[in-house]
Amino acid sequence: MQSKSNWLKLSKAQLALPYGLFLVCFVLAPLIVIIYYAFTNGEGVFTIENLTGFFLSTKTIGTLAYSFGIAIVTTSVCLLLAYPIAYILARGNFKHKSVILMIFIMPMWINFTLRITALKEILTIIEGNLSFHPFLNTVIGMTYDFLPFMILPIYTTLLKLDKNLLEAASDLGADTVQTFMKVTLPLSVPGIISGIFMVFLPSMTNYVVLDMLYNSTYIMGSLIGAYFSAYDWHGGSMISLILLIIILVFTLCTNRYADEDAGSSRGGVISR
Amino acid sequence: MRRKMHKKLLAAILAFVCVCTLQNGITVHAKAEDEIVLRVCNWEEYIDLGGWDEEERIELDNGVEILGVNPLYDDFEDWYFETYGKKVRVEYSCFGTNEDLYNQLNLGDTYDLVCPSEYMIMKLMAEGRLEPYSEEFYDKNNKCNYYINNVSPYIDKMMRENEINGESWSKYAAGYMWGITGVLYNPAEVTQDEASTWKVFANEKFKRQVALKDNVRDSYFATLGILKADLLTDSDFINAPDYASRLEDEMNDIHPDTINEAQDILDSLMGNIYSLETDSGKADMITGKILVDYQWSGDAVYAMDQADEDDFTLMFAVPKESTNLWFDGWVMLKNGIGGSAEQKHAAEAFVNFVSRTDSAVRNMYYIGYTSSIAGAEGDTTVFDYMNWCYGAEDSDTDTIEYPVGYFFSGDDADMDYVITASTEQIGRQLYAQYPSQEVMQRTVVMRYFDEDASKLINRMWINVRCFDIKDVPVVVWVIVLFVILALLGKRALGGKTR
């Protein structure tokens, strides 16, 4: 009992100490190292050449565009597929809702490389030769991988939606389409944003999908890797930093939409 | 020859074993003070880890029996204690690529003994990081100096004749495994003629059915082969007295203009290949997804073995232009040895132990690559193992005589080293494992790129792999413009309804 009361006496600051240490060692310190490398050259002298070099080369900027392309198309496809499913699941009068939801989530129980390997064989049967449609294959692979991350937050948001609002809407004379457009859709925006967040960013960098589906074009993730294995830590750090800033801007832009609830539904699944 | 399990599975087991041995070592030996700790870093799955079944016991013609019970480095610990009366503990770890190893060394990892490829050895040599082998190591009269007694005269000569900064490689490196690169092909669809040139990767007939290697050095070499094909196959060039050195210069051409031309060729190759692969090519060949694959000889042997099990035939061809002779070798690191004579002795003893002919056979059986070890005079273990693998059965009626004397005794006419093999071996495992002397004449060791060339070539590779913004289709630009206008328009109209 004695020890328990001591434990309770710890202040909030003391309780936060372990995580604070973790943050300093594994987030802040590496970040400082990355920034240092990004703005120095081989001799350790300050330079912005890494930055200008990135934006002046049509190849590196093209990689950024290609990554964006994959991410935008993947996210759109995921959204188009996930919203109806989530809507039907949340609204439908199913007896075993959780079982049906589980069916959609179940692919996540299987290791992701295994799933992509299986997908590769299926696509080979359909297309014959995978290498003719690298972009399409990548989008299919990414969608396959990330779809549950889009379904879950939308489903949660729709489930929590106050049914009284819908009744009120129909009482006031709105038909089904109007109710959906004016009430359901706007209220599910936090879930959508949360889903976009979880699909868009990983699909910009997850180059394992490209590798496994034989798309030999670099995206941001593999480009960083290429710089590091060519011993160019400075260029690699700069690209990491640029990616970090893009994510930061993206987060700031979407933050004002995402409310607390959506935020909590995101926590469980993002740490894969 | 043995690698029945999938490479990755093997790597996982190996990693597990590495961890286990390390932990074992730490708990059991933590307090032993007089023991030497030898830190060895090798490629993944690049040493016999033992655990053979009794039925895997190899009985050779010379009476030697080979069976791997324990990992080779554990056997070394016992052998060292028995021979020198001192305890040594091997801390065995693994690296994935030469670049990974180099980065690890730069990040401060210390090892006594590592086993990188030839170009990384050259780079480390040029940077003055390597500890030379002692004079003692080259003393042929010492029976325990297995390396110098057993190394193939061919490999030994190559390592003595090549120099970096006026010092020969053999002063710093001891050969471990070696091989060449070539073309693995499906003989049902591709003829030997078509496969015997680097141009096969540009051949429109096999559009999207050829695979190159996902690393810049191998791909650059193949590209040089395509770029200089006319010169390299010209009979005047081949018959020139200084052919060997001229060939070496041509295939090590790192002039900026050549690099630019190589980029154009690689760009066009990208439209013809199925994939850039490191590991997946073997499986894709066996499942018939691709017809032609750039392959290292050891992996080619493995793929052909696998295909044989599925009643599917694959063959190996060596491009007529030139091919790459590569090897991995043991080098000692200065900052690991740290001037300690004891440490250095243990490291050299380790190299000697893995250079015993029985160790070499165990490794070859386990890894599938070709060892640099041929065996001292009178020790035919390695040659008998070759016969055990590839020699004709009594029932075979059609046989060929395949001389490998250049490797075993330095003389290709040596009748003691002729393998009588079934004609089915032509262009297959035996030819990949020990290329004929005729093939060896057009091999080139690819040197390391100096810093300037390295920058250009890495940049070229990134350029080849990246998507050029100029290639974005017009329709995409129109859509992007449309979306931006729509967003701006909405904002201007006060679209904030919520």
Percent in helix of chain B: 40-55%
> Low-confidence spans of chain B: pLDDT under 50, at least 5 residues?
1-5, 20-31
What is the global morphology of chain A? globular
Radius of gyration of chain B: 25 Å
Count the strands of chain B?
18
Unreliable segments of 5+ consecutive residues of chain A: 259-272
The count of helical stretches of chain A stands at 15
Task: Give the SSE map.
The complex is a heterodimer of chains A (272) and B (498).
Chain A: H1 2-9, H2 12-15, H3 17-38, H4 49-56, H5 58-91, H6 97-105, H7 112-127, H8 134-160, H9 163-171, H10 176-187, H11 189-205, H12 207-212, H13 220-229, H14 233-255, H15 260-270
Chain B: H1 7-29, E1 36-43, E2 58-59, E3 65-66, H2 72-84, E4 88-95, H3 98-106, E5 113-114, H4 118-126, E6 130-131, H5 146-150, H6 153-161, E7 163-164, E8 167-168, E9 173-185, H7 192-195, E10 210-213, H8 216-227, H9 229-232, H10 235-239, H11 243-251, H12 256-270, E11 275-277, H13 280-286, E12 292-296, H14 297-309, E13 315-317, E14 323-333, H15 334-337, H16 341-354, H17 357-367, E15 370-371, H18 381-390, E16 399-403, H19 405-408, E17 418-422, H20 429-433, H21 437-440, E18 443-444, H22 451-465, H23 474-492
Parallel strand pairs in B: 1-4, 1-5, 10-11, 10-12, 14-18
Antiparallel strand pairs in B: 2-3, 5-14, 6-14, 7-8, 9-12, 9-13, 9-14, 9-15, 16-17
Could you describe the 3D structure shown?
The complex is a heterodimer of chains A (272) and B (498). In chain A, 79% of the residues lie in helices and 0% in strands. Chain A contains 15 helices and no strands. Helix content of chain B is 45%, strand content 16%. Chain B is built from 23 helices and 18 strands. In chain B, the strands form four sheets. In chain B, strands 1, 4, 5, 6, 9, 10, 11, 12, 13, 14, 15 and 18 form a twelve-stranded mixed sheet that branches. A two-stranded antiparallel ribbon of chain B has the order 2-3. In chain B, strand 7 and strand 8 form a beta hairpin. In chain B, helix 2 crosses helix 16 and helix 12 runs parallel beside helix 22. Chain B is globular and about 90 Å long. The relative contact order of chain B is 0.14. Chains A and B meet through helix 5 and helix 13 of A and helix 3, strand 11 and helix 22 of B.
